[in-house]
Write a structure and sequence with these properties.
The protein is an all-alpha fold. The chain has 2 helices and no strands.
């Protein structure tokens, strides 16, 4: 019997590569989200520091130039905070898309693996059926040979007896 070959092996290989690429993209998206969250935490802490600094400036004698600069700086910090929040939202959206793609590719790959496994099991069933059929034929041939040999022996014995009697 010929050896097992999966006729969709090239398709399975392509799906395996697509699965790996999707998992790599998922990892990149997760790393991007982590970086965006780190940037967001940094922007939040900077905005809080500016807020505390402005609160400290408003006590006692107030220098209007410094307070104006501090408010401008706070405005920039708030803009940076908004930009970082938007980056986190975008990173989460890309992460979700990458997660869905990876799940789809993993499912496709697992389907191919199950199909290959089923076909291999069918091949092994056919192999063992063929093997047992061959063994049955060998056993049958042995039995037929023994029958012929025993019949031939009986013929010789009966001929030998008739020859003795005819003498």
């Amino acid at each position: 019997m010929k050896r097992f070959s999966f006729n969709l092996q090239k398709v399975a290989d392509v799906r395996e590569l697509r699965r790996r690429i999707a998992e790599e993209k998922l990892g990149l998206a997760l790393g991007e989200k982590v970086r965006a969250e780190g940037e967001l935490r940094r922007a939040i802490s900077e905005e809080e520091r500016v807020r505390k600094e402005i609160a400290g400036m408003t006590r006692g004698i107030v220098d209007t130039v410094l307070v104006t600069c501090a408010f401008r700086y706070r405005t920039r910090a708030e803009e940076e905070l908004g930009r970082c929040r938007e980056l986190v939202r975008q990173a989460e959206a890309r992460l979700e898309a990458a997660r869905e793609e990876a799940l789809k590719r993993i499912t496709e790959h697992e389907v191919m693996l199950r199909l290959r496994k089923r076909r291999f099991e069918a091949y092994m069933d056919a192999y063992w059926w063929e093997y047992s059929k061959t063994l049955d034929e060998i056993g049958l041939l042995g039995h037929v040979r023994r029958e012929r040999f025993s019949l031939a022996g009986e013929d010789r014995a009966s001929r030998h007896e008739s020859w003795k009697e005819g003498r």
